[in-house]
Amino acid sequence: MGFIQDVSAILKKNELVFLERHKESDNIFTFIFEKNEELHWKAGQHGIFTITHKKVKKPSRPFSIASAPSEKVFKITMEIKDNPSAFKQAITELKKGMRIQMRGPVGPLYVKENTNFPVLFIAGGIGITPFRSIIKELENNKEETNKVDLLYFDSKEIFLFKEEIEEITGSTNLNVHFVKDRKELYERIDYFLSIHQKDRHYYLAGPKFMIRDVSHYLKNQNISKSI
Question: What is the free-text note on the cofactor (predicted)?
Answer without folding.
Answer: Binds 1 FAD per subunit.
